[in-house]
Amino acid sequence: MKTKLIILIVLFISIYVNAQQTLTLEDCYSLATKNYPLSKQTGLIQQKSSYEIEALSKGKLPKIDINAQATYQSEVIGLPTSLPGVQSLNKDQYRATLDLNQLVYNGGIIDANTKLKEAQTKTQQQIIEVCLYQIKTRINQYFFSVLLLQEKKALLSSKKELLTSKVKEVKSGVKFGAILPSSEQILEAEIIKINQQLTEIKFENIKLLNNLSELTFSDIDTETTLIQPVSYPNSTNITRPEIAFYDLQNQQLEFSKSVLSKSNLPKINAFGQAGYGNPGLNMLDNSFQTFYVVGLKANWNIFDWGKTKTDKKALDISKEIVTSEKETFELNNKIQLEEQGFEIKKLEQLLLSDTEIIQIREKVIKSSDAQLKNGVITSSEYLIELTNLFEAKNILKTHEVQLAAAKSNYEIIKGK
């Protein structure tokens, strides 16, 4: 019997522990990055790029065409005099050919376009990374707002518990005439007020958790406990995805210049044609014949009126624009980091004084508690000091959560 009871207790504890889910800030980041609809585009962009590169590479393969034609013409080539064995050409002519064209040399334009396509793919994927990274700021807003509500709820619950205990003491004092009856009612009214505040926190908490659930595409309810971050990386390097995006843009523009340079290089193709027709290559033989032609063909655009040079200048200006955008972003990012750094230092200083204030308030409430028991002060006066103490504790917890949020925002600004 005892063994069964122990097993039941263990199972109950296990079920209870599993029900109390915990969630960290990093978990929220990972869930959002993994499940956000935009993240699916990364793989789709890569697949699209693979098909496009495959299509480009097929430009190196031979091109084979089958052609057929039948014509009737009003005039044909004729000789001024008749020759023995030479017949005049038919006005109806027929021809079927198999044409093959093989690229021999094109200045590396296909390889250059392949590299350009790869650079474009990386740039497009980096845009996705930038958009996903910006979601972290919204996650921080909801996450730390819920943390703050958790702390407020804990403090209010503690205050309610203390007041409930104090009501019992006051009832005893009223019974023996040491305390006025109104003192009990004042404390009970304060308990009702606390219940109202807890109700507000409850619904605000549900709203924020719902927002966080929507953003992370996960089920986060009131049974989930959010864990406040306690440590942060000490790296000083700026690793924002926007920086990589600007660098990839410049690389893409460089590859575009390479494509332009190779577009004016000579192109050489080998070709061949095999056919059957009437007439064949011998125009004087008025019969169906087989024939073939093989050869090389070269093409070189040696003068394009400076179009390539102008296009390269436009690309150089585009690079300067991208560089200026990068410099602007880095400047604004530096300013944000400095502002956030000052915010962190301010909150750290405030926390030191918060602790001192609480120590003083605890001494005051201890004295007020004794005075209330002896009827020296009213419950209203006691309640003022108790509210001051819990307000000081609430400010401390608020500053702690704000400091954690400021440090997390600092990491996001820096690039986490």
TrEMBL record:
GO molecular function, one term: efflux transmembrane transporter activity
Keyword Transmembrane: yes
Signal sequence bounds: 1-19
Localisation: Cell outer membrane
Keywords of the record: Cell outer membrane, Membrane, Signal, Transmembrane, Transmembrane beta strand
Main location: membrane
This protein's GO CC annotations: cell outer membrane; efflux pump complex
Keyword Transmembrane attached: yes
UniProt protein name: Outer membrane protein TolC
Source species: Flavobacterium aciduliphilum
Lineage: Bacteria, Pseudomonadati, Bacteroidota, Flavobacteriia, Flavobacteriales
